[in-house]
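G.,

No rush on this.
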Amino acid sequence: MGTLGPDAVTQLWREQSRALTLYARQWCDAPEDIVQEAFLTLVRQPSAPDNPLGWIYRVVRNRAQNAGRARRRRQSRETAAAQRRPSWFEPGHDDRLDADAASEALQQLPDDQREAIVARIWGGLGFDEIARLTDASTSTVYRNYRRGLRVLQERLGWKCETSNNKTSR
């Protein structure tokens, strides 16, 4: 048993890489990477396997299954973590606000709009304070705040009642 030469590896690649990719696709989302890694492993072997084709299929299968299991575990952990994530809002006695819907709508806002709204409404900061905090002009912070409120109104189907002292600069 000698090493597998570059010509033999190249020929095996040309003849089998597409079929191996299709084979790996049934277990994982990145079959091309798996096939490439398997060929790199083959090249690094100190001696050629008795049956290189069978060997490469075994390596592709094992790696693809491992990658698929890892992806499913990661998704499961991420889903569990997302479900444990606390709501942005404290539960209250006021049924006017659906906390889950409001949290989701807030998270979908651009960062600058979300930051202005949270700092203004829940933080009680003035627009000048938010401007200093975010290194933006007061007028930019105010525009971000108003745009964000309009988007929230549309998404949540409610009208924001703001008094002059809440929206004034």
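When you get to it, here's the other one too:
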Amino acid sequence: MATVCFIADTHRRHREIEIPPCDILIHCGDLCSFRQDDRETIQDVDDWFAEQPAGKVICVAGNHDFELEKEGFRFEHAELLTDRLIEVSGLKIYGSPWCPDLAGFAFFQSEHGLKTKWRQIPADIDILATHTPPHGILDLPSSKSRHLGCPHLLAELPRINPKLHAFGHIHASAGEMERDGTRYLNAAIVGGREMTVRNLPLVRSLHTG
């Protein structure tokens, strides 16, 4: 059994968050906010990662994380997953940062690009960490006007069949649900126009091996 803590959408508010002891801390993207040159925030988040009571820190980028798009970028105190699978504490974890409908933001992909990226995700993994939610799952904005998740990601989920799928991006839909044997977590931390901390980290215990 491994204890995993999930967060997303900290938007420069990371030092206002208390992380409980865990085997793995997973950040599902949007460390930064509306600044294309934000190396200072990324460095501070990396330092903050080192201070957390987690055996391993994993990060997936979000649409505000332009610094993480730069060639050769690496955290010192976390593992950045960009279309990559790793095994930690007996859990197979795959991370992918891409987002639909956000041309001009970081990690944007066209519809064709999204289909290609999601098809690369291996099947029967333990944890899938993305920034965007799948269409129709914890993806409604505060206006509840329309679902904002990715339909192409949703289409691949029956094949991938993860035990748990964690994401963020749509702050107003923070929470969790279960569907067809997969537990879905929207781990967004901040909310509202002021981007204030509104939600606690989500901690779950997963069977390993």
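The first strand starts at residue 2 and ends at 7. The chain has a mean pLDDT of 95.

Enjoy the weekend,
O.
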